[in-house]
Amino acid sequence: MKISRVGILLLIITAVISNTGCSMVNRVFARNQLNDGAKAYKERKFEVAEQHFRRSLELNPNDLIAEKFLARTLHQQFLANRTQNAQKGEQAIEIYQRMLEQNPNDEDTNRAVSNLIELIRGQDALVQWMTKRSGNTQVSPENRADAFTSLASKQYNCANDITELTKQTVIKEGKASFAFKKPENTADFDKARQCTEEGTRLIDQALALNQNNDSTWSYKASLLVQQARLAEMENKMPEREQFMKQSDEAKARFLALSEEKARKKAEEEERKKAEAEKNK
Fold it and tell me: What's the rounded Cα separation, in Å, for the pair 262 and 73?
């Protein structure tokens, strides 16, 4: 029996409606699962929440909200029992990283995955992750600058841990001040210099991308202090004075930016307060 063109068209339309209806039903059920998961998450019933979010993703695999909540739920379970739930922490890392591939500038997700990488895989893995992010041109210049600043901060800590051990109190013209002596172990001095130079290189890359981050200028000032200490250890006092002058300039820039940020935050809080009063 031959089927007319009209009959074929009706079959096609019926199939499309059927498939569309199925997809729509799945999305409705997925949304219900998501809502139930959010409720369980709020009540800190993380295992229950995990089941709901996984079911939601089975029904609607492209739901980024469900994916994000699943990662957060796994993250929380890991923090509650790091030994027992280490695998869930690794799963959360994988989900966070997939999310960042779709939205490279999601800083909340980046902070979350950085925290987990450091806790689970260690400092070296965290440095590798931040190095990758700092070089990713899909990430905004501001967020790449933040990654460079984080890397520089670790180099600063490396240098400061060494130079602080050499600090001595001296009295000059009746006033107490600090002096820094070269470590007896040459390897310690070399390491402090290496960390300072690498930190300076990284912080300058951050500043090349963003001149308006107060944290970046703070570390710039601190790394210049480390350079001044190293110069003092080698009795290069004119160099020391120059580094300290540059550090003071960087510190002044940090303070100006920090004050500006605080002012904008206060203005925003006042705006929200006024808006809330207006809507009462």
Answer: 33
Exposure string (b/e) for 101-137, b if CB count within 10 Å is 16 or more? eeebebeebbebbbebbbbbeeeeebbebbeebbeee
Q: CA–CA distance from 247 to each of 10, 106, 192 (Å)?
A: 78, 32, 18
Could you tell me if 35 and 55 are in contact, meaning their C-beta atoms sit under 8 angstroms apart?
A: no
Give me the helices (H) in 2-85, please: 5-42, 46-59, 64-80
Dihedral over Cα of 223, 228, 233, 239: its sign: positive
Tell me the pTM.
0.83
Q: Are 235 and 242 in contact (CB under 8 A)?
A: no
Condensed to tens digits (0 to 9), the pLDDT of residues 155-213 reads 999 999 999 999 999 887 778 889 999 999 999 999 999 999 999 999 999 999 999 99
Report the distance separating Cα 153 and Cα 202, nearest Å: 9
CB count, 10 Å around CB of 37? 25
